[in-house]
User: Fold this.
Amino acid sequence: MAVGRYMERQRVWEWLALGNFLLGGAGGGLYIVALPVQASGLNLLSQLSAALVVAGLLCVMAEAGRPSRAVGVVRNIKTSWMSREALFASGFILFTALDTLILPSMTLKTLAWASALGYVVCQSFMPAAAKKIPAWNTPATAPLFIALSIAAGAGITGLASPAANQLHMINTALAASVLAVGASYATWPGATEYFRQALKREGNVIYLAGGLLITALAAAPAMLFSNQTAGLLLITGTSVVKYTIIIRMSYKLPVLPPLEALR
Amino acid sequence: MNQPTKLPTYCYQCVCGPDLLKVVVKDGVPVAVEPNFDAVDKHPAAGRVCVKAYGLIQKMYNPRRVKQPMVRGNRRKGLDQDPEWVPVSWDEALDIVAGKLLDIRRRGLVDDVGYPRLAVTLGGAGTPQAYFGTLNVFLAVWGPVDYSLGSGQGVKCYHTEHLFGEYWHRAFIIAHDAPYTRLVISFGHNDNAAGGVTGAWRNAEARVRGMKWIQIEPHLSVTGATADEWIPIRPKTDAAFLYGMLHSVLHEMSWREVCDLGFLKWRTNSPYLIGPNGYYLRDPVTKKPLIWDSIAGEAKAYDDKSLRNPALEGEYVIKHAVEIGPDNEVTEHRGVVGRPSFSLLLEHVKPYTPEWAGGVCDVNPKTIRRLAREFVSNAMVGAEVTVDGVKMPLRPVAILMGKTVTNGWGAYQAVWARAVLQSLVGAVEVPGSILGVTIRLNRPMLDRLESVKVGEDGFMAQSLNPTDSERWEARPRVRNAYKTLSPLVLDSSWSQALGPAHLPWLFMKHPPENWPAPTPPDVWMIYRTNPMISHWDTNLLAECLKDFPFIAAFAYTHDETNWFADVLLPDNTDLEGIQLYRVGGTSYQEQFWEYVGVAIRQPVAEPPFNTMDLTDIATELADRTGLLREYNTAINRGILGFKLKTPTYDYSLDPERKYKAEEIWDRVCRAATMTLSNGRCEYGLEWFKRHGFFLIPYKRINWYLHPVMVAKKLRYELPYQERIKKVGVELRRRLHEHNITWWDRQLEEYQAMPEWDDPPKIFEELPRRFGKDPKEYRFWLVTSRSMQYSWGANVAVPVLADVAKHVMGHRAVMMNEEVGRRMGLKEGDEIWIESPIGRVKGRVLLRQGIRPDTLVALQQFGHWVTPVAKDINTPNMNKLVPLTLESTDGTGSGADVVKVKVEKVR
Amino acid sequence: MTRWGMAIDLRRCIGCQTCTIACKLDNGTPPNIYWRLVKDIEIGRYPNVKRIFLPLQCMHCAEPPCLAVCPTTATQKREDGIVYIDYSRCIGCGYCILACPYDARWLVKERRGFFNSELTKPEQLSPLNDKIGVCTKCDFCMDRIDEGLARGLNPGVDPEATPVCVGSCIAKALVFGDLDDPDSEVSRIVRERPAFRLLTEMGTEPSIYYVW
Assistant:
């Protein structure tokens, strides 16, 4: 059965949504990495991190039909990853703001860090719950996005604070996990024909592999790349992967009757 | 907000209605359409209406309409001449039209050549009549009117089925008897698009019951979609398939066992003895055709009471007999050998083996053989069923055909082979078999059964246009010369439109020898038609229209034809006008009701624009041209369907008074209900506005011709076409007497049993006529109807485009996927489609359900003026179909088929 | 309990889109938005091709993924199984559209009619006119059902209390009724014919059954 002709891309979450995944994800990841490695200029980096999360939220609002009602977005914490994402985002922004602008404290930092982690996790589960999109609705999607966001955060950290503690080791670990989770994402055994089609079409597999490989280069021995270069590689590679999955591979699940009904 | 009201009305946008609906009106604004559930038990599709009816509200409020009368500002006409419309008042517009009409009355109703100075062209299939108001009354009292300038009929209709269907079994349209049919073999019969709600409803019921449907067509249509099997066939070879089936039944099976011998012997001309010249051998005294009685061992007249066992096969020596040939030439024979026509049939189909047919049709011969077997086994020869207390044969098999099969070259072969196959198993006009739904050429038009009168030689009477030297119409009275060239089209109100209605256009620019060339009419009126889109070879049409001195167009929107008009008259649309129309009985495409009566069309709200009811327009024109008295008198006489004055009632109009539409139709409503109820009910317009329809029972037995044929002891004129052969010779003589030889090829079609003469070749070779190489044109371009648009006059209604796009082919030309790929085409790519006379551009849809050598362009779009439609951007094949005598068959029809080449737009 | 559902007989459907347009008109949906439509599907390779018509609409799932993802709780499920949107809460984020496997949800982005910004009189009365920037979808014509029940009518039997699409179908392909009532026509059809539901592997438990 040639299902190809019934596959088309979703047009609901496009560039602005990608903006949220890229900016917000990297923002959350930045805080997750920058705090433990005690990056230099942490205050500024925290603010940058919050700004990126805010920018991500603005992207989402710009894409929404009724942004004026945005406040209602946290009504469904019970089941909606978007509500949870928004809640953690708000918490993160609040704690970071308090910490960096009013009352620096380790408690606030810890709360902010936990919120950032929650935010990145929830955001990563968002596409995974989109049953319409076979390339998103996989068990590997959320782990992959978590890894991508944190790796991007590490990338920014590397750019801003190349001398931070253990950065090379963290980069290596993150790059390796992105590569590992990405590879398992691309080859997960439960993949449907539609997932495979989404991967196969229009050179998507090359984009995905390319993104993963660029990311993986950050794991190269320190003598090859500086932390700054590695940071650039991480940011670029993870962005390419997110772009590939959110935009390029976002084919919709065709609605077709079971084959036996057709005979 | 007040509770919505629901106003009943009817929809007859397509040839399948009228169907009944209600319009939901909220605060004076119509907002929704729904079926008329009051008719659930009476309407054959439980009161449903199809997708088109739901577009009517938008049609009414369409801001792209022509919103007031307009006159042309630019005196020049042409494709490149903007009409420069100037708005005028209704008074001015009507005065202008009336002025032109009065000119005609002063100068004489016919011109110097003898053609009517007033010509009228209407849209497809009789649908305009349901929106006509009283315009037909005005035209009827006018005097000679030329209705013969076609708008696409002949090439867009079941032309040969119409003509031969009526001839053989009073079947202008042939349908299957869905409630009983077990097997339908459909050659491109697109019932799911063109069978209306009744077709959809009945077929759905039948499918669920277990009816099997085989669809044989070059592309998998919406009807093929619900079929049990799709058999792709090479275009225009359907007759060969049927010939293969005929061969299989008659030569590969034991025909004495599988055929309905009783039917063949007593209900057909199968046993009639044929003489050496191909005409019936007749008794020398009574002139009655002879049949060989194999028990008595002698020839007897067909109606001889002592006839026991008519022979179907063999050669018999008749001592003394005559043949009556063309022009009543009698040939006397002594000791002549006569053969039953059935014997000739056996011989005729002998060469047409399934292997031969398979090669022609590009179909596996086994499939043809299998279908022949399925056909005879499902016919259940011998079975009976009782309908309304009458026991009748049950023969639940039906071969149906679609456009391009039933018109143009090859159609005679196809409809003949179908009729013969059906007759072999007695499956004609009995439960489960093929049935005529309606008549349009014979009379009385409202009663198919009544139209069956006893004629000569044991057959029903036929009123063919005469071809004898005294009565043949040598000088045509209208521009398409239907009486002169087409004996089978008869001479009724529909005949002009079914004559070779494209010939006037062709002959205006290319007059043939020894023929009064058609003149442009002084006044041309058009209603619900757009021939610049729907005709073939539209460029030629444009050349003709430039020379038309005055065109009055009833106009919904600006369109490609009224681009050439002088006056635009925006009449009320479907939901704005008023009319009482007949419904029920058996009618139109596939309407089989158990009720008959009338339904109202009523305004559901104030018309939003400065439009006028067509009845009021007609009354004004009658008044302004001095015909009011005749007009009112004609209405009183019953031209609107019911006499306004009988011994039991009198609603007649004062002949001198001008009445408003409501007043006229109120009286018609009263007359209708009094007539239908035998004087028991008198309901006026107000009653109808609330109740919508008035119906009385109609017996189901009336669906079948069989009881009438039995009662009148008539036979079907099958399989042998003696009369057709004779008429052909006579017509040839008449034309040759007038030195007309350009119709000779068409006359070859008049055969007693048609040969397969390779009809597709005519279309394949056509490029040569234009100096082109046929090999370059490798694709067949055909068309297919869409339920959303067919006949609807609704291309300017955007909501229909919005839903139609979900059905394949509404946005692109369909092509086989592999072929497209090989040509480097992707879905949605733009292609040029080129025939020898032009090219059109369109997007391509690559699909699997289409033959590699075929392209399908759905419906007819390609608009460049009509609002909304011009944005649909789907090509029209009509621009590519050459208008030639070569592609005109003997009945005067062409076919929607042309060979083309395809190229990617760079 | 009542659980409203539908049986769609694929043997009957001819893809005419009458239900599509009846729904459009009654609910006043703007162009390019289809709370229901009939998909025209072709499967196989020439010449062994099958073309089928598949009516699609909100499946009123027992486990609606749209409801789970909706951040604002605008999407609700009633006791009788009808999944609907509280338009006053929806922010139009589009998440539910991506969660619904059935293409059943439509974001109305702007107030545009069939003649662009020029709304006709009937269009001005569309109940969707103030529902801009929100996600919309089939609600099984729940107003008709509720009002019908209030008037003592029987949804699925009386046209006025039944979804518009069902009444409009010209091939009697759509049957509406209570899936929890074993005597309803819809239950009988689902019981007696081979039936399937779409994309059940998504764990959605749809209330629309297809029979063939």
Summary: The radius of gyration of chain B is 27 Å. Chain B touches chain A through two residues (CB under 8 Å).
